[in-house]
Amino acid sequence: MIDLRSDTVTRPGKEMAEAMWSAKVGDDMFGEDPAVVALESYTAELFGMDSALFCASGTMTNQIGIRLHCNLQDEVICHKYAHIYLYESGGIMSNAGASVKLLEGDRGRITAKAVQAAIQPDDVHATVSRMVSLENTMNKGGGSCYDFEEIYAIREVCHENGLALHLDGARLFNALEATGQKPKAYGEVFDTISVCLSKGLGAPVGSLLLGSFEQIKRARRIRKVMGGAWRQAGYLAAAGLYALQNNRSRLSEDHKRAQQMAELLSNCDYVKHVYPCETNILIFELGDKYTNESFLQILKGHNILAFGFGPQLIRFVTHLDFSETDCQKTMDVLKSL
User: Fold this and answer.
1) Which CATH number is 169's domain given?
2) Domain membership of residue 271 as a residue range
3) pLDDT tops 90 at residue 319
4) Contact in structure between 196 and 247 (CB atoms under 8 Å)
5) Burial class of 183 by CB neighbour count within 10 A (0 to 12, 13 to 18, 19+)
6) Residue 5 domain-assigned?
7) Model confidence, pTM
8) CATH label of the domain that carries residue 256
9) What is the mean pLDDT of residues 123-142?
10) Is pLDDT of 310 > 90?
């Protein structure tokens, strides 16, 4: 079965599995798991930030980040399609007691001008604007990437108005590979960064939250109350470290395959529109010939799994278990429909 539903479906290869089972582990609650310490130190150094915290998921790292910056009656500014708002089970409210200001933006990307206009006045009737969250790449925007100059401009607005700046970088390494931007540039601009290891990088589990020493010290306490404390987590941390050290540059292969399919679909008569394809997420809108459900069933009949992403929208996500052969087979099926 060819699985294009998400880049979370990958399984560890031989080398990653060997790294996992050869890991030296200990009890992470005592700070004694060498593999976890190595992963956290490596990632913090990669981004030029003080410290990092290994967690079970990107939702956890995002929600801990929000808790670090927000309290009751505060407000988070983000795009209306942000993962932290749409896909994290109301965590902004339930974990931090905060409200949300939702912004429009091209393919999920907000601007410094929009952020400035969204900041609440100092008024007892209003929530307190406390933080801005960006998502890069933007899932609902078809894997769109931020221009770094816009990120910097948003940083300046935040600095001038006393707002924290958080990055949901679930697929940040895809953005870095596509744009040539550097991790340390992000570390210099954002207060906290969440990065995922179990998407394009191919690790089985895990995300990291990066920030200052004091922030990560507080984050450990928040992780604990969320039930996110680890014991011998080093087996998973070793997979994440292997992924960071070996799988980043190959992300361009995933981008290439997504773009090949995007080009083909743009010439198919059953497709109304194809989103610009920058990274490994391909979203396209069907015309009248198929519904979401019928199209997905046809693909499944050809041993291809995909994901319905809204009315008449289909999402493909390429990944390291989607080979060149798989790509060609998929394109042959798409041509035949």
Assistant:
1) 3.40.640.10
2) 250-336
3) yes
4) no
5) buried
6) no
7) 0.97
8) 3.90.1150.10
9) 97
10) no
